[in-house]
Each structure stands twice: as structure tokens, then as C-alpha cells.
Amino acid sequence: MVGFVTTGLRLRTSGREKFGKGLCTVRMSSDAMKDNKMLHVVYRVGNIEATKKYYTKCFGMKVLRERDVPDDKYTNCFLGYGSERRGEHFSIELTYNYGVEKYDLGNGFKYVGISVPDVEAAVNKVAENDGKIIDDSELPASAVAEDTDGYRFQLVPGEQRDPVSKVSYNCTNIENSIKFYQTALGMTCFESSGSLAKLGYGSEKDSTIVELVHSDEATEVGDGYGQIAISTPDVYAAADSITKSGFEVTRAPGPVPGIGTKVTAVRDPDGFKIVLVDAEDFELEFD
Q1: What's the distance, Cα to Cα, between the start and end of the chain in Å?
Q2: Which among 67, 78, 119, 151 would be 20 to 30 A from 52, CA to CA?
Q3: Which of 271, 225, 277, 196 is CA-nearest to residue 111?
Q4: Which secondary structure element, helix H or strand E, spans residue 230, and what is its range?
Q5: 176 burial class (0-12, 13-18, 19+ CB within 10 angstroms)?
Q6: Angstrom distance (rounded) from CA 97 to CA 99
Q7: Is this model's pTM higher than 0.85 or not?
């Protein structure tokens, strides 16, 4: 997306409220969000070449595009399973800040989910390419791999058009988080309970979703995780919709200096950043 994820933020939140089922029934946002699409997740790595090798060899991803910005001392690399244009495929945007080799990952960002035809075969592929499996106790239902920086990937059975099936977070109050993603961002709540919720745009089976998992521990964002990027037809209308839904816009809508892509931003109840990107400006990044 845009190259402004160069500094980290550490946030702590807490919550111990009790809640039940039927949490998907909150009011939806305005029409400003109805054509939104998930674009990518952004996080920082200490060795971008090692991470690229891991994702391409262990997970079969492709390097989609790269951008080096020496004046600001950072490099971006986008990886995934197909074209990013018009939000067709979700991607992972790696940010390497010159000279920074290690980050605090916190405990809030759980993992990226990858759907695979055969979890055991996927586990073997990770092992054969010197990757790291940290949990295979649920085989053949799922397994968890960990990359060279400590970011985790859940391998789950299934075949869908875009194998990147979800981005998963811990949250301290799942009811508040569901309300935020529905009312502020216009997501559909596909499933919810007192401990887990799944939200997104379009069809759950044909798009990357946000998965929220209740945690009794205070959530630490750390300084490695950056944000999720979502395309929207009009960032000004999106920012207005967020404000009217009762949430605070943390970056006023407008163009990013030096790049020109119009964006706005907001944080969820646990401090995770979401950037909304002008859909047409995003397409210009491919020209």
C-alpha cells in the first residue's frame, strides 16, 4: 500500500466483561462502507530477504511487487497468491526499516490463516524448507507455523480462491470489537460467540476475513505489527461514517505526502490500526 508504516506503537487495553451469543445483531454502518474490500496486512520484519524466502518456499506465495524508499530508509515487499488489483487477492506487506533487526510482536496479533488442501502435506513442506512448526497437536485439522521473526501462520484445511483465509487477533471485549468492525467499518459478522467472531466483506468462503478471539490478558500490540489496509470508494465519506458511528478517526482523510494515495485511519478497541485506502488511488500504484 503506502510506505508510512515505519514507526511502532505500543498500546495496552484491558477488559473482563461477560457476554453471551447473538453478538452479530448490532447496527451496520452507512452505505459509505458497502463496497469496501480487504487489501493487505502490514508488519515489520528484521530481514526481508529471509522472510521472502520463507513465504515463497514454505507457503508457496509469490512476490507480487517491491518498493525501496532510500530517502526514508525503508523497503516494502508484497507477497500473496495472486493479483492485488481491485482487492482480488489479499496480500502481506512486509516493511523493512533500515538497520532494525528485531521487533516486539506483543500478544495481540495471533496469526494469518492459510487454507491448504492437505494440512499434513503443508506441514511437511514447511519442514522440508527449514521452516518451523510450533504446534501440530491438532493434525490433521490444523497446525501453526512460525516465521523467522516470530509471526505465526495457521494452516487449515480447505480450498478457496485466495488461500489467505483470515487475519486473527486477540481481543479483550469481543462484543465491543464486533460492534466496531460492523458499525465503523461496515463488515458482515459471519459467526460469533462469547469467545470468537468472524467478520469480513463479501462471502466468508471467498475472501479474507478478520477473526477475533477473546483473551483474558491485556492486549499488547507491540511495535512489529502495522495495520490492515481496506479499500474504500471515498475516504472522506468513510471518515465521516466512522465519526458518525461514534468512533474516532486517528488520521484525517487526505493524500499521503510524497505518494499521493488518499487514506484515512482508525483504531479498533484493542488498538489495532486499520487504514482505509481510496480504491482508485490504490489502482494507480500498479501503473
Answers
A1: 13
A2: 119
A3: 225
A4: strand 225-232
A5: middle
A6: 6
A7: yes
